[in-house]
Design brief:
The protein has about 130 residues and is mostly helical. The protein has 7 helices and no strands. It is about 75% helix and about 0% strand.
Length: about 130
C-alpha cells in the first residue's frame, strides 16, 4: 500500500479515523520502508522544520475549546457556531474533540444523576416536616 506524507503525518498526529489508523499501523509493522518514512517524517517535524500546516495541526487551531464544546452540548451557541462545531466533530472527525465531547457528556450525566439523588434525599429528609394547610 502507498500512503502520502499527509496521511502519514495525520497518522502521527492521531488525526485519522480508527480504521485508517489501524491500516497504516498494520502496514508499518510489515514494511521496513514505511517504518523508515514514518521515522523520517517524525524526525523532520521534531527537527524544527515546520510548515504552516504543521503548526496549524499541531496547535489544533481549528479545534473548539472545551468551554465551547460544553456550550455546544447545552445548545446555547449561535446557529453558525454550532454548525461549525458539528462539522468539526462529525465530518472532519476530530478524535481529540470527540474525546472531549464524550468526556463532557459523561460528566453531565454524572452531575445530573447526583443532582437527582440529592433532591430525592432532601425531599425524603423533610417529608415529615411539611404540613398541609
Amino acid at each position: 500500500m502507498t500512503f502520502t506524507d499527509i496521511e502519514l503525518e495525520a497518522y502521527l498526529d492521531e488525526a485519522l479515523p480508527g480504521d485508517e489508523m489501524a491500516r497504516i499501523e498494520a502496514a508499518a509493522r510489515s514494511s521496513a520502508e514505511l517504518s523508515r518514512r514514518l521515522a523520517g517524517i517524525h524526525a523532520r517535524r521534531d527537527g524544527g522544520s515546520h510548515s504552516l500546516g504543521d503548526v496549524w495541526r499541531r496547535h489544533r487551531l481549528t479545534c473548539p475549546t472545551r468551554s465551547e464544546l460544553g456550550s455546544f452540548l447545552l445548545g446555547v451557541l449561535s446557529k453558525d457556531h454550532a454548525a461549525y462545531i458539528a462539522f468539526h466533530l462529525d465530518e472532519a472527525g476530530c478524535r481529540y474533540c470527540q474525546a472531549n465531547r464524550d468526556d463532557l457528556k459523561r460528566q453531565q450525566a454524572e452531575h445530573s444523576e447526583a443532582g437527582q439523588r440529592r433532591r430525592r434525599k432532601y425531599f425524603e429528609s423533610s417529608a415529615g416536616y411539611l404540613r398541609r394547610p
